[in-house]
């Protein structure tokens, strides 16, 4: 199975690059003739600009996967749907429309208002499930990462909140799902922010596929504010899992990226808008 992954959006554009950066991530995954859009960052315009530079047509997108509800992963959806200009399935968790927010240093709404209704008007067909779902042979979502499925060091507070039954409660970001591809070289796992924990997500992909060979993990690992001990445990877990390639960006953070680079050497590469990853 030949896989080609285009980085359509990341917080970093790369050195001497013509591509646009923005807060968030977006990948176009090309596999067996199908094109899967994974996340839509904050804004559509930079994604569409980068697609043009990469000679990609948004009308060729066959399906969309949204990792979770935060605006830096869903904000560009409506603009991209306008360009697709036809019906297209959107795979997500049922809590993708929840009221989610941070309270420090002040209240900040983290979702995208009226996402459901506006997307439907533009041809989006919502496929909402907590369970893993197969998009095509060898390509599947991870579904909800339950608390009991998480490795111990990835459990704990997220610092985020949501409204449930009129009450303010902690948001564990249960709506975050990842995407996995079972290639000849091993599993390829994509994460948007990895709020449930990147190691837990990789282990869920291994469990679902029955394949313990992990070739590549890419996306945001949400270690930007993590304690040193968690960063070290994450890097060690990747080494124990014998992950061959790590492509990290967005919310991973400079400190974590540096540790991956120090420990993995050439096996680590920093993500940037316009980066193309080919696996055959």
What's the structural blueprint in terms of helices and strands?
Blueprint: E1 3-9, E2 26-31, E3 34-38, H1 44-53, E4 63-65, H2 71-74, H3 77-84, E5 88-92, E6 100-102, E7 108-109, H4 115-121, E8 124-128, E9 134-136, E10 139-141, E11 160-164, E12 167-170, E13 179-183, E14 186-191, H5 198-209, E15 214-220, H6 228-240, E16 245-249, H7 254-264, E17 268-270, E18 276-279
Parallel strand pairs: 3-4, 4-5, 5-8, 14-15, 15-16, 16-17
Antiparallel strand pairs: 1-2, 1-18, 2-3, 6-7, 6-11, 9-10, 10-13, 11-12, 13-14
Helix pairs in contact: 1-3, 6-7
Structure description:
- This is MBL fold metallo-hydrolase.
- InterPro entries: DHPS-like_MBL-fold (IPR041712), Metallo-B-lactamas (IPR001279), Metallo-beta-lactamase_dom (IPR052926), RibonucZ/Hydroxyglut_hydro (IPR036866).
- Keywords: Hydrolase.
- It is a single chain.
- With 280 residues, this protein is α/β, with parallel strands linked by helices.
- The chain has one domain (3-279): Metallo-beta-lactamase, Chain A (4-Layer Sandwich), CATH 3.60.15.10.
- Helices cover 23% and strands 29% of the residues.
- It has 7 helices and 18 strands.
- It has helices at 44-53, 71-74, 77-84, 115-121, 198-209, 228-240, 254-264, and strands at 3-9, 26-31, 34-38, 63-65, 88-92, 100-102, 108-109, 124-128, 134-136, 139-141, 160-164, 167-170, 179-183, 186-191, 214-220, 245-249, 268-270, 276-279.
- The strands form 3 sheets. The chain has a 7-stranded mixed sheet. The chain has a 7-stranded mixed sheet with strand order 9-10-13-14-15-16-17, covered by helices on one side. It has a 4-stranded antiparallel sheet with strand order 7-6-11-12, with no helix packed on it.
- Helix 1 (44-53) crosses helix 3 and helix 6 runs parallel beside helix 7 (254-264).
- The longest helix is centred in the C-terminal third of the chain and has 13 residues, at 228-240.
- The chain is globular, with a radius of gyration of 17 Å.
- The model has no long low-confidence stretch (mean pLDDT 96).
